[in-house]
Structures are given as structure tokens and as C-alpha cells.
Amino acid sequence: MTLKPPIPPRVSLPDTQREELNKLETQEWIDSLAYVLADGGRKRSAELLEALDAWAYDRGVPIEYKQSTPYINTISSGRQPEYPGDVELERRIRNIIRWNAVVMVVKANKASDGIGGHLASYASSAELLEVGFNHFFRGHGAGPNRDLVFYQGHISPGIYSRSFLEGRFDEAQLNRFRRELSPDGPGLSSYPHPWLMPDYWEFPTVSMGLGTLQAIYQARFIKYLENRGLKEKGDAKVWAFMGDGEMDEPQSVAGLRFAAYENLDNIIFVLNANLQRLDGPVRANSKVIQEFEALFRGAGWNVIKVVWGSKWDELLTQEGAPLIIQRFEKMVDGESQRYAAFGAKELREQFFNTPELQQLIAEWQDDDLAQLNRGGHDVHKVYAAYQAATQHKGSPTVIITRTVKGYGLGESAEARNVAHQVKKLDASALTALRDLLELPLTDEQVEHLEFYHPGMDSPEVQYVLKQREKLGGFVPSRVVDYPHPTVPDGKFYEEFAAGSGGREVSTTMAAVSILAKLLRDKEIGKYVVPIVPDEARTFGMDALVPRVGIYSPRGQTYTPVDSGSLMYYKEAVDGQMLEEGITEDGAMASWIAAGTAYAHHGVPTIPFFMLYSMFGMQRVGDLVWAAADQRARGFILGATAGRTTLAGEGLQHQDGNSHLQAYVVPNLKAYDPAFAYELAVIFEQGIQRMFVDGLDEFYYVTIDNENEVQPPMPQDHDRVRDGVMRGMYLFQPAEDKKAKLQAQLLAGGPAMGAALEAAELLKKYGVAASIWSVTSYKELHQDALLSQRWNMLHPTEAPKESYVAGLLNEKDAPGVLVSVSDYVKLGADGLNGHLSRKLWTLGTDGFGRSEARTELRDFFEVDAKHVVLATLYALQREGKVKGEVVAQALADLGIDPEREAPVLR
User: Fold this and answer.
1) Closest Cα to residue 682, out of 779, 589, 597?
2) Which candidate in 450, 482, 531, 650 could, as Cys together with 602 as Cys, close a disulfide (CB 3.0–4.6 Å)?
3) pLDDT level of residue 562 (50, 70, 90 thresholds)
């Protein structure tokens, strides 16, 4: 047994002696550690400190855990690599880009007051971006090493200006910044929008926080593709640029721990801490950089701080360094902003505010003090951070850079609270900027807001072109080039057209069955990506888990508790399913990564994201809009859909509005199939349209959990298949086509049962009802609107008839029109005004309730008896039946006419 050495007793000394002894003792420890560092290196030094920490902890020494390191650069001047570029030439290049970015915005606002744009964000990040463009961001020519870059949306003028210098845009296009509808030719979109500039931008990032979350899941999807053998392994990085104010958004931090858990060393965040958001300081009374360091370090990230420029090294490498560091620690961001705004005099008087600090700069002039810049504007510091980040292994990296918002824009914007809103500069400010940037422009050229291009043969342009050639070509650049897969034809889905043969099956179960069959397909099975947010068992997908496995970069390092069962929990490095845990946002970001892989990686993965429908469009709507912008393709399956099918769950879970929310996304096809064969048609045609025909659309399909016998597809399959995709077809014609009283009942999804039952009940009242299956009110309405528009624009030509109006014409579909839906009435109500007569609508407007299906449908007035009532009332309004008939039906059906409307309860 080894005895621990005893701790020697403390010697009693006077305070002054004790203080001197403590200083000496501290210096001896530092000298000892310096020797270890010189002899054994950084790793050995860390081992020694860890051993001391463990020894002290074992003896009860209260060592405070600090999540943040000293407020200085992570990489000291002695560890900086040599800068590989031409520093002076790159400075001139940045100056040209800065000027053109400013002129672009100012000129646009002069031509059209209020057109907008941003100057300050790019001004603060020019060095951060240019070091990347010249030395790190790899283009398509780099093959598997190609990088993906998420740019801050507000810096788009700077990116356009660089492309102008490279010869990718001409001056006329810069003149059409934010003027995309110009008759003179294409303009430049305000922010990164792939929908608007599909050959240029790759990721929309202006909705704050979404870029950072998507970047993490893009990085993970690269690993997923590589581990599954769908993409050649490489060293590709995902770069995400964000602002410090943006970090207040929940989505900005939502995926941090996930990235660390997945060991995503291919993700690099560059956090531009210019200390300001739109209205003022981000954290005026503290240091936001230290806050972010603690946040990221706590989440398991590698943190690199770029706080101070090279001039500060002169103070940090002399004996006064501890004094400077102590002063840094006392400084808050609000104070720091004053130094950036008011310059050397303020710095001399307020920062160097003790005799000891004053002594350190006794020989310095104001010009020297003016060079005490922030690290994010020093290319040497930025390069060192980028190189360290790209070489780091095992965990994600964040580079936190300290910059000045509006850097170089003069007194009207630099470091001012109004910097973000500045769109214009007066003539004197522009002249001063020209002089600062040392550009060969006359006062007249400045006054006329002329762009500056040194010529394609100039050293500046040749340099940027050479650097981009070395790095694999231009960025940003969106290139769509993927092998079009051979997809299954109609025969593949024949079993679903045959019906369930008396077996009760929900459309959710049918969706899982189709998905399982697609996964087995030899041609496209490998491209199918099932995604679920911790609800696989709820949706019946657990049977897929042992067959395709859940993706995990670690594989499965344990034996699962259900290993002996048929449907055991299987994780694998090449697993195909993405089980994202309880995060709809994260799962949606994962779906976007899979749905855009055809463009980013040339791999046509087909994502199927199954989620609670109520937590779909409502919770991830912003991400759905971003998916639409970047032309994502795939299927979002809103499971347990409808307001009345999810028995017992109540207000929060019961979905009656997701189709209304899906309606507003222009390229999102929204379907609510009632039957398994309809679902099969939507999957078949959707895959064909997206991944073979190359249409930039995606699909929201609601599926319910109510077990019912699935009927076979009606005769005339081509008519039905066409109707399913166009939004509606005749499912069941009326038995008595000569009946005096006729009705056309429209229903879809979970409401189909009520319509079918109502058709039987209506026979008692002499009404013959036809049943129409409505798979998509959105498709019907948009087609009707397009027909209406064409007719309005061609008033002298024979009017076009919309698809739905043609189906429901009074000759072929006589009688009243009544729709019933498990969603709000507004979806079906959109058809009113496009038909020859009124459509009476029933829907589930109001909050959900914890109840069983029968009671819920009665409460929301969408069950069979309310369909009957609505039909008879519609006939009364047309003079076909008397009011007494309707009153008798109220009594027969047991409907209380005085009860309060569900939307009010």
C-alpha cells in the first residue's frame, strides 16, 4: 500500500512577506511548467496539469471549473503559421470588394429609395470571408473534398462584389441589385436564395438560426453518405458564418450538443462577434465572446478565439502582459464599442487607465494606438484559426472572431448602434471611404457612384482567379448533376391497388408498407432515407429498424435490451434510418440535407420524414420554407393526421390545420389520401416527377392511424391515377342517377368514412349521393386560380374550364355540393367562386379535445349525421326540400340546434 505524502503545515508570516512569497512561488510553478512545455510539448504539459488537478480534487481543494479561457487569442503569436498569401495584394483586393459592395447598396437606394440592403455586416466580415475564398473554401473541382459554405445573409453585397471582380457578374447586374424584375435582364436577389439564383446560391440563410442548424445536419449527412458508401470519402468541410446577435435564436444553438456527440469534425462555425445586433449591443454589460466560448465548450466543441490583432502582441509578449490581460477581463462590450467608435484618444484615456498601463504605451503615438485592432480584421490571425480548425479532429470547431460592425465605413456607421440600418452614405463619406481604400477613382467618379474593376488582366483579378483555380473553382456555385435513378413503375405498386382484402389497415401502416418495399428495391432502395423524430414505434416503423438499421457513426457498442426479439434496436455505421430523437427541427434539417443531396453531392437520396402532423407544418414551418427555397425534394409524411383520428390526445396533438399551413409554400404539393392505393400513386408519381423529371417540388402527405378495410382502386385506373394527382376523382357514383334529389359529397383522408355513411343515410330522405375522393384541395384550387387568371387575360377567347369545375358541372354531377374534411373549412372553401354553384363545407375549426373518435366527430360536426344535415339544408336553400324536412332530420339524427359552435368552445 502506497501512503500519500502528508501536506506540510502552513508557516505563519506577515501579510507583506506572504504576498511576496506567493508571487515567488507562483513564478516557480510557471517556470517549471515552461520547462515541461519546452521539453515535453503541449500534450505532456496538459497531462501534468490534469494530474495536478486530479490530485488536488482528491484532497478537497476547491478548484473552480471555468468554461471560458482568458480573454485573449487561443492561438498565440508564437504558434501562428506563416501566412501563405500576398498580404498587400489581398488587402487591395479586399478594398476593391469593399468599395463595390458599398456602391451597390448606395446606388440601389439612390435609384429606388428604400430598396434596402446592408453595408455594415459585410464590412465587419470581409477579412473572414476573403481568407476563406483565397485559401480554404474548396469548389466543385475538389471532388469529394468540396466544401459547403453557409454565408450570413446580410453580407450578400460583398459576395456579389467578389463575383464581379472574378468576372462572373457584369456591372449591369450589380446595378440591378434587389431589382430582379428589371426588363433589362436578371438582377441579384437581396439575400442567398437558391430558388431565385439556382446556379449560384446553395443555402438560404437569412431566417436567423436556420443556417447554423442546417449546417450541422449537412455535415452529419456527409458522414452518413460516406459511411453508407454513397459518396467517396473525403475531407469536405461545412463552413457556417453567423453573427453574434443571431445566436439568440433557439435554432442557432439547438444542434450544438448533437454535433459534438456525432464527432462532426467536418463542421466549422465562424461566429462574427461584431458585438452589435440591429438595435444596439448584443451584451453591452458583459463579454459576449466569453459567453459563447462557455456555451460551445460546454457542448463539447473545440473553441478558437480570435480576439486581438497583431499589434496587441507587442503588449502581450512583454512583462506587462498580465496587466493587459487583467484589463481585458474587466472590460465589457459596451465599453469596447466606444474604443471602436472614437479611436485612439478614447483608447488611451479609458483603456490604459492606470499608471502601470500608461507606462506600457508611453512611447506610442496615436497612429500606433489606432493599429490596436480586433482580431477578425487581421488576416494572419484569421488564417491561423482557419488552419487549426481544418486540421482539428474528433469534434466540431467554432471560431469566435472579434470585429467592428461597419468597419471602414466612417463616423456614420462604424461601430455605431445604427450601423445595421445604414443604406446610404453622403458624398463626403464616400470620398473618405475611397481615400481609406486607396482606390484610383476621381471625385466625379465617386459622385456618380461608379464601380471599380481593375481589369481582368490586373494582378488583383489574376490572383483571385489563380487562388480559386487551386481550390477547385468558383464559390458560391450550385451545380445539379446526378445520375437519374431507375424508379419502379406502376406494377411495383399493384398490391396496393388491390386493396387490403378485408384486413383493416390504416394509411400510416400502408405508408410504412410502401416504404419498406421501396427500401428493398434493387434500383432505388439504397437512396431511400427514412427519417423519424423518436416516433418509429408510434408510426409502426419499428419493423424497419433491425432490417435497415439506425445510422450511428459509432456503430453499436452495446447489446440492446431487446436483442432477443424480432424487432430489436439496431444501430450501425452503415445504418439507413435516421432516428433524430425528440427534435422536429433537427429532423427537418436532416430531411433538407437528404432532400438537397442531389445538388450538393450528386446523390439522389429520397427522404421520407414521418412526424406527428400537428408538429409538422406548425412547428417546422420556417424550415419548410427554407427547404422550398433551396429546391429540396422528398416526402414529409404527417402521421396520425386529422383533428379527430388521434383519439384521446387532445388540443395540442390533433391536427386540423397543417394543410392550410402547407398551402402557402408554392412548390410544396399537399395531399390527404383516404386510401392505400392513393398513397401508392402519390409516391410513385412523386418520385418520378422529382428524381427523374427533375422537378423542383416536394410533397406533404397526411396519413392517419384509423384502421379500416382498404378498398381496391376503382375501375379505369388511368382516370383514377390522374385524378389522385390532380386532386379529385369520382370514387363512388350514386346508385340512382335519376333520383329527383341529388348530391355530390366531397371527402378525403379521415373524413371519407363520414361521407360514405352519410350516402347511405341520405337514401332515407330520397337523396342519391355520389362520393368524390378529394386528395388535394390545394391542387384543385391552384388549378382553378390559373384558369381564372388565363380567362381574365384573354377576355375575347373561349374561357378555360378548371379541372374541378369540369368534374362538378351540373350535367354530369347534378345536385348540391357538400364537402366534409377533418381539417378546417377554409381548405375546401377556397373552391367557392370557381364552381357553378355553392360548395357547402364541413370542417374541424376549433381546438381539439381529449375524446374518442365518434365523440370528436360529433363535437366538430363532421360525422355522417352532420353531412346529412348539411346536404338537406343545401337542398332546402335551393328550394328542393322544405324546412320541415330539415327540422325532422335534426330530430331524427339527435342534433341539438342550440349547442354552441365548436370553434367557440
Assistant:
1) 779
2) 482
3) confident
